[in-house]
Amino acid sequence: MKVIHSVALFRSTVLGPLISRDQLPRGDLKSTIKMLASHSYNIPGSRNNHLSEKTIEAWYYAWRRGGIEALTPKPRSDRGQSKISPEHQEAILASKRENPRRSIDRVIRLMERRGQVAKDVLKRASVHRLLQAHGLSRPTGGPSEVEEHRAYLAECAGDIWYGDVMHGPKVPVNGKLRKVYLVSLMDDASRLITHSAFCLSETALDIEGVLKQAVLKRGLPKKLVIDNGPAYRAKTLQAVCLRLGIHLIYCRPYAPQSKGKLERWHRTFRDHFLSELDHSRLGDLSDLNARLWAWVETIYHRSPHSGQGLEGDTPLQRYQRDLPKIRSLGVLAGQIDELFYHRVVRTVRKDGTVSYLGARFEVPYELSGKRVVLVVDPHRQQVLGVEDEQGQSLGAATALDALANVDRKRRKPPLEPVSSVQPDDAENEVELAYRQYHHNREDR
Predict the structure, then answer these.
(1) Could you write out the three-class secondary structure of the chain?
(2) 284, 129 in Cβ contact below 8 A?
């Protein structure tokens, strides 16, 4: 039996609601195609997850003409051949071998500057096919070196956690629909979700908030693996992990396989939670998070898992086996809020105030004009106090109340007493001027 091409099989699956019917009533074709284009798909060989109406329509008419064979992608008639002249091919290959990290655009630009080819003669797609045919299309490593990836598993729960963000649905927030983001932390060995929450953004501060709840519930991990984006490279997140003794590791850019287990959980989450979510029951973000936490704790954590190392155990069972080996917060539990405070450098104004996120706070007036470190609770957006660079407290910080300051009694430095008795031979500038002026007039 002839094997059906995977792409043809995918296309026929998409066309199912159309090709499974003997006849389409007038107007149904257009509406059905529009409905199919609104869905998300796992498209073979593509990062996109949506199809245009024109693409689906073209597949439908191709199927009507030739059935499943017409949906099978046809190889290019010029496959394996290059339209680039032989001498130019040699120059391109030599340029790439000379520096394997050269991009296609840089190879073309270099040949144009060297006068080896006229401007705009080489097409990017043609150069790419030539390099690909000779195993030189990979941008990093050796000319045809394949990056090695290995399946691995942490030995114990708490050894490695992963952090990642997934785009979520829209929920009512202050009377308006706003998109939310699912921030999650997962334990590698057990696949347990140490904490997860829908947030209004995907910043380092959101990761910090989820991390705080995770360590309170599940102890301290040895390593935390997160994305390499600018938001996650915030110094505040690095400082929090340093205080907690967590080794923060950043994934290589464009390497999602580094967090493959969490990516797989996202797919499960979409299929089992988001697809069943009744949006009509959501009043606000807290309603959504309440349902998330209930589903994670009662369903996901208690369902047998077929992943490597679990052998049919539930994530909770696997995690609990390693409880004696997991680092607890210990004495740090009593300092947990302080460990997540931010430190921000500011210069105190002449009126004894500093600014943070557009608000002004009063600090000890003696610090006017000096650079200080603000101790900030980022989640409440409040300045709690000021420190010097060595971490020693310099006093408290309070929100500025300009109206109350109208009647506030100000401290004034004591005036030094002025002696009314002066030595006989001590004359000030006024007396000297007086004596000199009148003495000169008497001489005249």
Answers:
(1) CCCCCHHHHHHHHHCHHHHCCCCCCCCHHHHHHHHHHCCCCCCCCCCCCCCCHHHHHHHHHHHHHHHHHHCCCCCCCCCCCCCCCHHHHHHHHHHHHHCCCCCHHHHHHHHHHCCCCCCCCCCHHHHHHHHHHCCCCCCCCCCCCCCCCCCCCCCCCCCEEEEEEEEEEEEEECCEEEEEEEEEEEECCCCCEEEEEEECCCCHHHHHHHHHHHHHHHCECCEEEECCCHHHHCHHHHHHHHHHCCEEEECCCCCHHHHHHHHHHHHHHHHHCHHHCCHHHCCCHHHHHHHHHHHHHHHHCCCCCCCCCCCCCCHHHHHHHCHHHCECCHHHHHHHHHHCCEEEEEECCCCCEEEECCEEEECCHHHCCCEEEEEEECCCCEEEEEECCCCCEEEECEECCCCHHHCCCCCCCCCCCCCCCCCCCCCCHHHHHHHHHHHHHHHC
(2) no
Q: Collect all residues with Cβ–Cβ distance below 8 Å to 118 and sequence separation of at least 6.
A: 112
- pLDDT tens per residue, range 292-325: 999 999 999 999 988 777 888 999 999 999 999 9
C-alpha 225/C-alpha 66 separation (Å) is: 50
Rounded Cα–Cα distance for residues 51 and 185 (Å): 32
Phi-psi group of 252: left, alpha or beta (phi > 0 → left; psi -120 to 50 → alpha; rest → beta): beta
pTM: 0.58
Contacts of 356-362 with C-beta under 8 Å, sequence gap 24+, read: 356/381, 356/383, 357/381, 359/399, 359/400, 360/399, 360/400, 361/397, 361/398, 361/399, 361/400, 362/397, 362/398, 362/399, 362/400
Partners of residue 346 on adjacent β-strands: 372
Give the list of residues 6+ apart from residue 32 with CB closer than 8 angstroms, or none.
17, 18, 24
Cβ atoms of residues 70 and 108 within 8 Å: no
| Residue 290 burial (C-beta neighbours within 10 Å; 0-12, 13-18, 19+) | exposed
pLDDT in tens, 140-159: 444 444 444 555 578 899 99
Residue 172 phi, psi dihedral angles, 5° rounding: -65, 130
> What is the C-alpha to C-alpha distance for residues 25 and 269, in angstroms, rounded to an integer?
37
